[in-house]
Design goal:
The protein has 51 residues and is mainly β. It has no helices and 5 strands. The strands form 2 sheets. It has a 3-stranded antiparallel sheet with strand order 3-4-5, with no helix packed on it.
Length: 51
């Protein structure tokens, strides 16, 4: 699996997600959920619509 990056709101910078998992949000959008390696905050990266 390639590295997944997202924007950590607590650190205010782009980070590589630790333990990313693909999920489908309530509105039907696909997203990756992981944790920030620096502060441990949950980070979401929305990829697109689920089909």
């Amino acid at each position: 699996m390639p590295a997944v990056t997202g924007f950590c709101l607590k650190c205010r910078k782009k980070v590589e997600l630790k333990n990313p998992k693909e999920t489908v949000l309530k509105n039907g959008a696909k997203a990756f959920v992981g944790t920030c390696p620096h502060c441990g905050t949950k980070v979401y990266t929305i990829v697109g619509r689920a089909k």
